[in-house]
Design brief:
single chain; 21 strands; 8-stranded mixed β-sheet; Rossmann fold; 33% helix; 15 helices; binds cytidine-5'-triphosphate; alpha/beta
């Protein structure tokens, strides 16, 4: 059967990309009905959208003609998936608060179909606590949210907030349409009305971390020496990114604070890129509160006391430039004694010898609940396999060598068990 998409376009500079999105969806044989908010009409016209969708385009809640032909309730239900692309900070805020003050937001409140929001906005608006709070709410309400791309913005700034490419949006739409009906997140809503659907136990098992916020650090940090040199380590970020992907897969809202690595952002994960340990600490603290924090980053222990403004030059004496080092803040230990300490705090410990002993000592020193001790004497750093032992106050669980992706899945299962209301 032909898939029916209700596409809601809100007003941002990225709205022009919705034309390409419609073209690609039509090419795949899908039916598209489009709704434009008032500000979206500044960027795309109903005329061009009408031509591409070959359907009437809806713009106004009080357009009597449209209301006679098709009521807004009907419009919101005659779709297999509702897609909001681009979703501005403003429409996300309205959605999160149940505001229905125009046709687009009324449809979003009236629909009984899965909703995919594809945000696009300025990087600061994206990272603003209010937006992140709204995203957290929407996620808990069962709205699917794509992570914006990183890159240069129309406003001249650089960062997270660009609308993902239409190809990627189409792939996500196809993935959601292919999910079994039991996966419909709206079926998981609590019982607001007598006839509201009940919790589905199957999706509870598939999404054991739904409604939880998991904060993860990954990768190395770079500590500048001068504008062209820095102190670094061999961490690839693979294990932390795999854990972020597994947590998102388990239904959690995931914030991934990543040091400089060349890895794609896992689907459904909010990524904050940082360079130094001090930036990582600020990003981690501003992402609190979290239900679980998993600190996988290989944070540099030291930074230069004073990074030089200009490139350091050899002075001809044959003596190396003096480099004074100072200790970096310990992010894991800071969280361990934080007023907003996550319920479950997990550290990683890269060791080459006396692995369990060192991990036990770190557990106490940093105030963590678990330390995942990994043996880095082989080629773990940068490789795809890992050998870990989970060290807790009650003992040591040694896992066999396995791919990092499996370590991630097993660890997230263990986290979900520990956070479950039935845990001891
Ligand atoms: N960690 C951190 N901030 C730091 C150093 C480490 O948050 N400045 C975290 C790491 O993310 C990891 C854990 O602490 O979860 C242990 O890291 P590791 O480098 O093994 O421990 P160190 O404290 O550096 O101890 P040592 O170098 O003495 O082994």
């Amino acid at each position: 059967m032909t898939s029916r998409i209700l596409l809601i376009i809100s007003g941002g500079i990225a709205a022009y990309k919705s034309l390409e999105l419609v073209r690609l969806l039509r090419k795949r044989g899908m039916t598209v009905r489009a709704v434009l908010t008032q500000s979206a009409q500044q960027f795309v016209t109903p005329l061009s959208l009408g031509a591409l969708t070959e359907n009437p385009v809806f713009t106004d809640l009080f357009n009597l003609k449209d209301e006679q032909e098709i009521g807004h309730i009907q419009l919101s239900r005659q779709a297999d998936l509702v897609v909001v692309a681009p979703a501005t900070a403003n429409i996300l805020a309205k959605m999160a608060n149940g505001i229905a003050d125009d046709l687009a937001t009324t449809l979003l409140l009236a629909t009984d179909k899965p909703v995919l929001a594809v945000p696009a906005m300025n990087v600061r608006m994206w990272h603003h606590r209010a937006t992140q709070r709204n995203l957290e709410r929407l996620h808990a309400d069962g709205v699917h949210i794509m992570t914006p791309d990183d890159g240069a913005m129309a406003c001249g700034e650089y960062g997270t907030g660009r609308l993902p490419e239409p190809d990627a949006i189409v792939a996500e739409i196809e993935r959601l349409l292919a999910l079994p009906k039991g996966f419909d997140p709206l079926a998981d809503q609590p019982d607001f009305a007598e006839d509201a659907p009940q919790f589905s136990t199957s999706s509870e098992t598939n999404a054991p971390l739904r409604g939880k916020h998991v904060l993860i650090t990954a990768g190395p940090t770079h500590e500048p020496i001068d504008p062209v040199r820095y102190i670094a380590n061999r961490s690839s970020g693979k294990q932390g990114f795999a854990i972020a992907a597994a947590a998102a897969q388990a239904g959690a809202r995931v914030t991934l604070v990543a040091g400089p690595v060349h890895l794609p952002t896992p689907q459904g994960v909010t990524r904050i890129d940082v360079e130094t340990a001090r930036e990582m600490l600020v990003a981690v603290e501003s992402a609190l509160p979290a239900d679980a924090a998993i600190m996988v980053a290989a944070v540099a222990d030291w930074r230069t006391a004073d990074a030089a403004d200009q490139k350091l030059k050899k002075d001809g004496s044959g003596q190396p430039a003096p480099l004074a080092l100072v200790e970096n803040p310990d992010i894991l230990a800071t969280l361990g004694r934080h007023a907003q300490r996550p319920t479950l705090l997990i550290g990683f410990a890269a060791e080459t010898q006396k692995i369990a002993d060192h991990a036990q000592a770190k557990l106490a020193r940093k105030g963590a609940d678990w330390i995942v001790a990994n043996d880095v004497s082989g080629d773990v750093m940068g490789g795809d396999a890992n050998s870990v032992q989970i060290v807790t106050a009650s003992g040591i669980d040694a896992w066999p060598v396995m791919p990092k992706s499996l370590v991630a899945e097993k660890l997230i299962e263990k986290v979900a068990d520990a956070l479950s209301p039935h845990a001891d």
